[in-house]
Amino acid sequence: MSREETARARGLRTDYCGELRSKDVGRTVSVCGWVARRREHGEHLAFVDLRDHTGIVQCVVDGGHDLRAEHVVRVTGELRLRPEGTVNDAIPTGEVEVGASEVEILSVAEPPPFSVDGRVEAEEPVRLRYRYVDLRSERMQHNLRVRAEVNAAIRRSMDRQGFVEVETPLLWTPTPEGAREFAIPSRLQPGSFYVLPQSPQIAKQLLMVSGFDRYYQIARCMRDEDLRADRQFEFTQLDLEASFVSQEDVWEMVSDSVLEVARAVTGEEPPPVVTMTWNEALDRFGTDKPDLRFGMELVALEEAVAGTEFKAFQAEAVRAICLEGGAELGRGRLDALTDRARKLGAAGLVWLRVVGGEGQLDLESPVAKFLSTKEKAAVIEATGAGAGDLVLVVAGERAPTCRVLGQLRLDLGQPPVSERPYRFCWVTEFPLFEGVDEEGNPVAAHHPFTMPHPEDLGRLEADPLSVRSQSYDLVLNGWELGSGSIRIHRADIQRRIFALLGISEEEAESRFGFLLGAFRYGAPPHGGFAYGVDRLAAIMAGEESIREVIAFPKTQSGADLMAGSPRSLPASQLQELGLRLAPPKEAKGA
Fold first, then answer.
1. What is the DSSP letter of 14?
2. Nearest CA-CA partner of 580 in 185, 233, 222, 298
3. Which of 224-238, 282-296, 320-334 has the lowest mean pLDDT?
4. Among 550, 441, 452, which Cα is nearest to 128's?
5. 177 has pLDDT over 70
6. From CA 155, how far away is CA 38, in angstroms rounded?
7. What is the CATH number of domain 295-413?
8. What is the DSSP pairing of strand 183-185 with strand 164-165?
9. What is the pLDDT of residues 183-197, one digit of tens each?
10. Torsion angle defined by CA atoms of residues 510, 515, 520 and 521, in that order, rounded to the nearest 10 degrees
11. How far apart are CA 417 and CA 367, in angstroms?
12. Which residues contact 430 (CB under 8 A, 6 or more apart)?
C-alpha cells in the first residue's frame, strides 16, 4: 500500500505512536491515543506523552490545551528531532517528537482508579473491577497480543497438517469428563437441562465416525470447579482428533503446534519435545508434571543402603535429592524442610551435609552415626554429591515418597515461569485405572473410552490396576498443558471396560447411547488430544496465573467484579424457565 492508502487504513491517524523514528522526521503526522503524562514547559508550552498499544511518543503542544491523564486525543503536526541533550534512550521513539499544530480532544476522562503505567501495582480486585483500564497497560496489551500470536500459530500448524476446523455445540448433554458441569434450563422443555461442555470429547469422536479424519477447534470449555492460578470456569483449549493414527502420530501433530507457538512468540528455535513414561517421570522427578529446566533429579538409594540397620531406611523406597551448595543451610531452615516433608505426607526427612575434600568426603548429620562408612560412601556416589552439598532423603512407599521429594525439588530449585528455555515433555503410559471405589470397582484415570495398552489387554480383568493406558500428557516447565489418548473403537473392549467400572449395559446405553450407536455404523481407530491455550499463553507471556492472559476473568470466588455477575434473575424469568428457588439455608447457630 502507498503511504496515503496506509493512512486511510489507520483511520484518524497516519501512524501509531510507538512506530515513529528519525527516518520519519519532516513528515506531517497524525497520532491518536491516551494522555499518559503531561509536563509543563514554560507559560505557553507543554510536553504530552501520548500512548497507544505500540508505545509512547512525545508531543509538544500549546499550554492552553486542557489535556489530562487518560484523555483521548488526536495530535497532528510535524515530526522533528528532539533538541540536543533531550533524547530519551529509554523509549524507542526517544529521538523524535511531534510539534503539534492541531490538537483534538476526542474524549475526556476522569482520573483513573490506578496508574496505567504500572509504577504503582494495584490490588487485583481493583484491577478486575476496572478491567477496561487495566487492559490499557503495557503488560496486559503485551499478554493479550501474545495470546493472539499463540492462536494464530496454532491455526497455522493445524492447517499445514491438514486438519479441518469444526465448531461443536455449547449447549450439550452430560458427559463423563470427571468435573462438575454448568447446567442450563430449557425454556421449551421445562424441567430439562442442557449442560455447557467440559470439552468436545464425544463430539469429536463422532466426527471421526463421520469421516472427517482430522478435526481441530480452538474450543471454549466450561467446568464448575474451584478456581486457582491455572483454572477458570471458562477456559480455551486446542482440541483435536485424528483417525487411523498411533500415539506417536498424535504426539508429532501436537508437538508441531506447540513448537510453532514457541517460535512465533520468541523468534527462537525451542528445544525438541522429549518423551518419558509415567513411571520414569515419577522416579526421576516425583511428579507426572516434570519441570525439565533444572536438574536435582531424584536418586534411588535402595541398593546403597541395602541391609542397613538404620530402621528409617528399611522401606520399599529410599529416594534422595542433592541440593548443590545446600550444606550452608542453617538448622532452622532444615527443620522447616522436615516439617514441609511431613505435611506432604512423609514420615520424616533425613538431611545429610557433605563435608571434607576431594577423595575424602563424609556425611554430617544427627543420623550419620547410624550409617556405616560403606553406606555413606555409597550414598555420596549414588547422588553425585560433592563437598558443600546437601542430600535430602525420604523413605516409605514408592509413590508417596517420590511425590514428597518431587515437591521439595520444586520448592528448592524451580525457576520462575518467566525463565526460559521452554522445555516440552510428553508423559506416556499412564495407569488405565487410578484406584478402586467403595464398591471395589476400578476407577478410570482418564475417561472410560481410553484404549488400554495392547500388551496389557490380557490382564484387564485379572489385574486391572497394573494395566497401562494409551493416554498421554503434554507438560511445559512443570505445567500440565493437556492430555489425550487413543480411544476405544471396538465394541468388545468397550464392554469389558464398562463391566470393570460397574456400568451396566442399560446405564451405558442411557449415558452414552448416541456414541455407542454411532460406533455400530463403522468407527475408525482414532485418537486425540486437547491442551489449554490459557496455560500455554500464560507461560509464553511469563505469567504465573492464567487470569493475566484472559481479557475478563473471574476472581477466585467465581465473581466478575466488572460486570457484577453472578446475580439473581427476576421471578418472571425464573417462572418462564420452570424454576423455583429453594429457601436459603439457615446459618449454623442461628
1. S
2. 185
3. 224-238
4. 550
5. no
6. 43
7. 3.30.1360.30
8. unpaired
9. 999 999 998 999 999
10. 140
11. 37
12. 278, 288, 445, 446, 468, 469, 471, 472, 473
Closest to 225 measured CA to CA, from 269, 181, 190, 188 = 181
Q: Is the dihedral of CA 280, 285, 288, 291 positive or negative?
A: negative
Rounded CA separation 414/427 (Å): 19
With 60 as the cut, is the pLDDT of residue 4 above it?
no
CA 268 – CA 201 distance, rounded (Å): 33
Please state, in angstroms and rounded to a whole number, the distance separating the CA atoms of residues 260 and 264: 6
Alpha carbon distance 370, 207 (integer Å): 64
Which pLDDT score is estimated for 330? 94
Q: Is residue 399 over pLDDT 80? A: yes
Question: Is domain 139-168+179-267+531-557 in CATH 3.40.1830.10, yes or no?
Answer: no
The fold of the 423-529 domain, in CATH, is BirA Bifunctional Protein; domain 2 (3.30.930)
pLDDT in the model for residue 463:
93
Q: How far apart are CA 494 and CA 450, in angstroms?
A: 9
The answer to whether 475 touches 425, Cβ cutoff 8 Å, is yes
Please choose, from the candidates 386, 267, 369, 268, the residue with its C-alpha nearest in 3D space to the C-alpha of residue 324: 386
Cα separation, 275 vs 257, in Å, equals 16
Q: What is the mean pLDDT of residues 453-481?
A: 95
3-class SS string, 366-400? CCHHHCCHHHHHHHHHHHCCCCCCEEEEEEECHHH
What would the grid cell of residue 36 be? 499518559
In this prediction the pTM is 0.90
Reported as a pLDDT band with limits 50, 70 and 90, residue 587 is low
Task: Say yes or no to pLDDT of 77 above 70.
Answer: yes
On the 0-12 / 13-18 / 19+ scale of CB atoms within 10 A, 143 is buried
Counting every residue written for the chain, the total comes to 590
Q: With beta carbons less than 8 A apart as the criterion, state whether 514 and 275 touch.
A: no
What is the dotted CATH code of the domain comprising 3-107?
2.40.50.140
Query: Which segments of the chain belong to CATH 3.30.930.10?
Result: 139-168+179-267+531-557, 423-529
Q: Chain-wide mean pLDDT for the chain?
A: 93
Residues of the chain with CATH 2.40.50.140: 3-107
Q: For 472-497, what is the mean pLDDT?
A: 93
Q: How far is CA 566 from the centre of its chain?
A: 25
Other Cβ atoms within 10 Å of 435 Cβ, number: 9
In the numeric block, the cell 484472559 is attached to: 550
* Residue range(s) occupied by CATH 3.30.1360.30 in the chain: 295-413
pLDDT band (50, 70, 90) for residue 492: confident
